[in-house]
What does this fold into?
Amino acid sequence: MSIQKKDYVEVIYNETERPYTSYPDQLTRYLVDRYSLTENQKILDLGCGRGEFLKGFNNCGLLGHGVDQSSMAKALCPSSEIRSANLEVDAIPFEDETFDVVYSKSFLEHFYYPEKLVTEIFRVLKPGGKVITLVPDWEVVFKTFYEDYTHRTPFTQTSLKDIFVIHGFESVNSEKFYQLPYLWEKPWLLLSTKLFALLAPSSLRSHSKLVRFSQEVMLLSSAIKPKQ
It folds into this structure.
C-alpha cells in the first residue's frame, strides 16, 4: 500500500493554526528600503510557501516569481510566475542570469547540501544581482531547531557568511536579526524587550509574538554576484 504524502505547507502552515498577518508586508517593505530595491526589478522567492512575502514584494512594485513544491502561493499571487521544483534534487527552474534579486526566508536550513542551492542562486542571478537570506540563528534556537523535522542544516552567523563567500559572492554580510518591526527603527529598545520576554508569565510566552520574536532570533545575510 503506497502512502499519499501530504502538502507540507498546507499542513504545517494552515490558516487556522497560523493565520495571515501584516508581518510579511512589513518585512518586505523594510528589505526593499534597506537594500534599495526598485520597481520592476525581477525577484525570485525560493520556497515561497503560501506566497505572503512574494505578495509583499509585488506590492512594493517588484516583479515577483516563486519556486516551491507546494502550489499554495498561486492563490495569493495569481499574477506571479510560480514554478514547482524539489530543489534538493532539481535545479532552480529558471534560466541563467534571470533575476536582480533572489530572496529566501527559513529555507536554506531545510537542505542537506545547501551549497548546491547557493551555486544555483549564483547561476540565476544577473551580474551585480543581490541575494537576501534569512535563516534561524542556531546559537539561539538550538533547543527547538529540530522541532521541525524538515530542518537539515543549522547556521551560525559565521557559517552563513562563509557559504556565500566560498561560492563567489562579494560584499557578504551576516547579522543577527529580530523579527520585531519596531526594533528595526529603534534597536535601542532591544534590551527592554528581552527583559520583558524574560519576565513574562509562561502562559504569555506561548501566545505573544512580542515574546516569541524577541527569543527566536534570525540571521539576515546579503551578498552580491560580481559584475565580472
Notes: The first helix runs from residue 8 to 12.
